[in-house]
Prior knowledge:
About 60% of the residues lie in helices and about 0% in strands. The chain has about 120 residues and is an all-alpha fold. Helix 1 packs antiparallel against helix 3 (about 60-70) and helix 3 packs antiparallel against helix 5 (about 80-95).
Amino acid sequence: MKPRTAPAPASTASVPAAGDAADPRWWGPALAGTLLAPVLSYGAAAAGDLFTALPVFLVAGFALPLAVVAPGWFLARTVRRRRTRVRLAVTGCVLAATYPLLLWQFAWMYFFAMLLTGNVRS
């Protein structure tokens, strides 16, 4: 009779999923968004002549896009999160480029809301 041998212990190291692999260029989208957002904000403000008309509102035009891009620097540096970093960078750049348009749309909506509620007096 043969002596029984104990089964080999199962491997304790878990096999990482394909999306959990390290992304060597994780910094690309975040860096591109961080550099492009202020440039687009400046270009949009110059095209809309906001430097002389509404200089106070320019702070949000520069800060909001960077606030959208900033989480891309702190996400996990994996391939699975790359799409999220790209989306954050693109959203920040689109927000920077369209900020004057969004500002005017908000102003018109505010005016019509005040007009329809009877708060505008002549």
